[in-house]
Amino acid sequence: MPEKADVLSRHWLPRPYRQLLVGFWIAPGGLLLLALWLGTRNIPAILDLRLWIPLVFGLLPALYIWQEGIDVLPDGLRCRVHLPRFYAYNTLDTYYYDRRSGRRLLTIWDAQGRRVLECHAVHLTDFPVLLRALHKNVRDRHWPPNS
Questions:
Q1: What's the predicted TM-score (pTM) here?
Q2: Residues 124 and 86: beta-carbon distance below 8 Å
Q3: Engineering a disulfide at 29: which of 40, 55, 88, 116 sits with its beta carbon 3.0 to 4.6 angstroms away?
Q4: Separation of alpha carbons 65 and 59, rounded Å
């Protein structure tokens, strides 16, 4: 697996949206802690492990949203969507970018015809850079294969 220094470009959900989504996931726990502190001023209650375990689990989606994205590497793509995976260019068969208004959907298939990635253009920063890397390394059929 390539090192971090090998990343040619990194594509994330645009920063304001990532920040807002993370804020929405963190806000309920923060409001709960604030209400507990303002309402009772009970420091032992705030330090109780039974309170912090659900709060920490509530932060997991925020951490996931913050790291989700696609890295373009010299020899493939590292997709951090659902689970981090690496796809070498030689294992990818084709890609299709549906440019129609309202769709703007990128789909990539592997050599076995399985859909390995599907994402909307607006969900990634520097989307044209990702398309150029795909155009250079993966076949573009201009229409989707049997899916």
A1: 0.71
A2: no
A3: 55
A4: 10
**Residues with Cβ within 8 Å of residue 67, at least 6 apart in sequence:** 80
Domain boundaries 8-141, corresponding CATH code: 2.30.29
Q: How confident is the model at residue 2 (pLDDT cuts 50, 70, 90)?
A: very low
Residue 104 neighbours by CB under 8 Å, 6+ apart:
97, 98, 120, 121, 122
Question: pLDDT digits over 104-139, tens only?
Answer: 899 999 999 899 999 998 888 889 999 999 999 998
How many whole angstroms separate alpha carbon 46 and alpha carbon 33?
7
pLDDT digits (tens, 9 = 90+) for 36-90: 888 888 778 788 888 889 888 888 888 888 888 899 999 999 998 888 899 999 9
- Secondary structure of residue 29 in the 3-state scheme: helix
- Phi, psi of 68, deg, nearest 5: -65, 135
| Structural domain boundaries in the chain | 8-141
Residues 7, 10, 64, 59: is their CA dihedral positive or negative? positive
CA neighbor of 86 nearest in space, from 96, 102, 73, 100 = 73
